[in-house]
Amino acid sequence: MMHQQIADWYPMLEKVVSTPTAWLLSTADRIAVTVGVPEGSLPFEKYKVFIEAILLSFLLYVVLGVCLKLVSGILRWGHVALNTRHVPSVSSLEHRGKEGNTLRALIDRYIVVPLFGQALVLAKGCPWEHMYRWVTDRSLVKFRVLHRTGIIVGDPKGMKRIFQTGYKLYDKDLDFSYGPFLPILGTGLVTANGKHWQKQRLLMAPALRIDMLDAILPIAKRASERLSEKLETLRGKRVAVDIEEEFRLLTLQVIGEAILSLGPKECNDVFPSLYLPVMEESNRRVLAPWRYLYPVQAYQYSSRVKKLDTFIKGIIRQRRAERKRQGDAYVQKDVLDKILDSVDKGGTVWNAAAETQLCYEIKTFLLAGHETSASMLTWTIYELARGDGKAASKVREEATAFLKKPATLQRENVEKMQWTLSCLKESLRKYSVVPVVTRDLNKDDELCGTPLPKGSWIICHLQRVHHLYKDPLAWKPDRFMPGGEYDSFDDEIRPYMFLPFIQGPRNCLGQYFALIEARVVLGSLCEKFSWSLVDPKTQGVTHPTVIPIGPVGGLEVYVE
After folding, report:
1. pLDDT at 27
2. Cβ-Cβ contacts under 8 Å for 90 (sequence gap 6 or more)
3. Per residue in 457-466, pLDDT tens?
4. Which backbone phi and psi does 152 adopt, to 5 degrees?
């Protein structure tokens, strides 16, 4: 019976592959004629069966792969849907937020939600704002995007389970949220799971120890001085400056020098043209996966990734050759040297795979080292510019005391800038520049008292937790001063009430790096300048689709 079915299908498959085969053979003949070879004189025809066999094998491989993925998806999401029926779900009234519109609610309940779940709602407006609304007043809530069931968590105790006590059960979500970033970040720390993540974490951790925090201070100070020189030429001239873009370039310069000893010109020449466009396109693909099919964008994307990889691998090879040539006389320069030390001490076999993995880690450091820092600084400048000047004056006072003289630029002094740090933390809390992170549950677990099955897709709503503070939409740096609101939370949940860098074993390795860099930059600039918004009525709207979240249209300010 099986043999008869295959025999029935074979003529159709043969017909499918015969057309492209004929096209390939005729194209080869035309090329031969173009270069002066008589038509039909080359024996292309005898390769027809071979070409058809290759095309048929490829077609079967693709069809089989698609079928297996479909079956796997049906089994996983069917299992999750059946075993989360007890979880509170987004109702037809809630999912649009139009509780007074009964007709729309009925259409949603009996037509839209059964067919699409909440997919159509999430495709419009800001996805994490919809999720914020759904999880308000609940520890967790269930929603659906077509076949995929998601569980939104907005409770600090749930966050503790995910990030700390049960972190091994909650893997990075590589097939949805992180999927578009895999071409650039590969199997780096941000996207790695399990034993591979543990190995890479141990390898990378020494690169960001205390001595690296000391090394970042003069780098951040020099970058601030370069920006100050540019801003000085615009002081008082009422010329708009997009401070968000300036911070993106500045933080890339800082991380470029700290990791790879690159100069500011080299950073400006390479990263804005290669790295930033790739990250922007990856961000777009998270919510618009059809962009994978755009041929021009796909070509530009892959071309930029290849060029960036070639650039970084070239630096790695050059550095390894330099270290080998100088031997014991070699003096460490940057994070790359520290990583290479860890690689050598760990006995890692150096080959193409090891080089590619290190390239992934360098790109991961670039992402983690500048995106959050730039957004944090941008929102802090926004709040200082729209405030009454008191907060800015306190930042200026700390900068004068701890940054102005070269002798005071020491980590111990920068860490005394508590008010400046509180301003930065409050910006991270209020604006939640990374509003959600996602996880895949790899084993049955209980979350917030609710049993969840293996395969569940977990959305950790950090913004919701950050808005559990009193008067959450107000910008109040005092919350993070000693004895402030943050200190008043119970010890059990306090670390999970502020999650811009996550918590637990998978927390951000570069968080102290980012916060000490930002204190130097913000203090140095505020010590010299004050700011005013170009259009206070329209500025400061959070971007609805890009993470880390920045203001729509950047942040144009006047320098005073």
Report:
1. 62
2. 118, 134, 141, 142, 143
3. 999 999 999 9
4. -90, 130
Integer Cα distance of 471 and 136 in angstroms: 15
CB 341 within 8 A of CB 210: no
For residue 247, CA distances in Å to 243, 274, 522 come to 6, 17, 10
Query: What pLDDT sits at residue 22?
Result: 61
**Distance (Å, rounded) from C-alpha 93 to C-alpha 497?**
30
Tokens of 179: 């999927």
Phi and psi (nearest 5°) for 246?
A: -65, -40
68 by Cβ neighbours in 10 Å (0-12 / 13-18 / 19+) ranks as: exposed
Buried b (16+ CB within 10 A) or exposed e, 307-331: ebbebbbebbeebbeebeeeeeeee
- Specify whether the backbone of 543 is left (phi greater than 0), alpha (psi in -120 to 50) or beta: beta
Range list of β-strands (E), 320-472: 436-441, 445-447, 450-452, 457-461
Element (H, E) at 484: none
Query: Using an 8 Å Cβ cutoff, are 251 and 378 in contact?
Result: no
Distance CA 435, CA 429 (A): 10
To which residue do tokens 């918004």 refer? 533
pLDDT of residue 483: 94
- Please provide residue 389's backbone torsions phi and psi, each rounded to the nearest 5 degrees: 95, -15
Residue 244 · residue 374 · CB < 8 Å: yes
Beta-bridge mates of residue 216: none
In this prediction, residue 6 carries a pLDDT of 45
Residues in the chain, pLDDT under 50: 1-7, 99-100
Burial of 446 (0-12, 13-18, 19+ CB in 10 A): exposed
Answer whether 47's CB lies under 8 Å from 28's CB: no
Q: Which residues pair with 142 in a beta bridge?
A: 89, 151
pLDDT of residue 1: 47
The pTM for the full model equals 0.85
* Three-class SS state of 547: coil
Residues present in the chain in total: 560
C-alpha 346 chain-centroid distance: 28
* CA quadruple 312, 257, 253, 214: dihedral, nearest 10: 140
Per the CB < 8 A criterion, the answer to whether 498 and 186 are in contact is no
How many CB atoms sit inside 10 A of residue 33's CB? 14
Could you tell me where the beta strands, DSSP code E, fall in 316-468?
436-441, 445-447, 450-452, 457-461
Q: How far is CA 531 from the centre of its chain?
A: 29
Q: Which residues, other chains included, contact 412 with Cβ-Cβ below 8 Å and sequence gap of 6+?
A: none
Give me 535's structure tokens.
């259009």
Helices in 46-166 by DSSP H: which ranges? 48-82, 102-107, 113-116, 119-122, 127-135, 156-160
CB 220 within 8 A of CB 254: yes
CA 237 distance to own-chain centroid: 37
Non-local CB neighbours of 337 within 8 Å, separated by 6+ positions? 319, 323
| Element of type H or E holding 485 | helix 485-488
Burial environment of residue 519 by CB neighbours within 10 A (0 to 12, 13 to 18, 19 or more): buried
Choose among 507, 512, 483: nearest CA to 495. 507
